[in-house]
Here is the input.
Amino acid sequence: LAKTTQPISMDSYEGQEVNITCSHNNIATNDYITWYQQFPSQGPRFIIQGYKTKVTNEVASLFIPADRKSSTLSLPRVSLSDTAVYYCLVASGAGSYQLTFGKGTKLSVIP
Amino acid sequence: DSGVTQTPKHLITATGQRVTLRCSPRSGDLSVYWYQQSLDQGLQFLIQYYNGEERAKGNILERFSAQQFPDLHSELNLSSLELGDSALYFCASSTRTAAYPHEQYFGPGTRLTVT
Here is the structure.
């Protein structure tokens, strides 16, 4: 399983764009990059997933460079309700699809 | 609301006891995953079932076992409980035909406290 490295914490003001970068140097050919959000005492929530280039949905964008050794989750115009822990995961597109969570990035949005 | 239900929401029990946690996946989801989240270990994968069969095992202790029933609900059995088993236990479900293979839907969790 590819190991991921992401900042332990980040602070941002309301209304700003937040970019959280994740490093995954040992990513394999079959691996996908997935991001989850977790609020205290709640289960994680799927945000976005990508394999290469750029993926965008109604919540976030995911930028993946050509070498796929890193990825950046972009949250546009964050609000206080975006305060949460964000997990970057790398997992194979084949097999059991089990998820391995790291420490995540605790994002604090300041008014 | 993810569509995944877990009962009970809270459970307090004593060391040495046995408990059963229950999970009902989203309608139509065949895969069920169990995760444990504790303060020191973070969120850890325990075990996965797919359509009634065990598919993958993670860091699950021998004192723990699980099963998935024909109606696709799943139960996680924890026995000979120790203080260190106190944690949040999450169940998640997914469909293997999803466009995103790692899109799992997590339940609200069961908070287990062992005293």
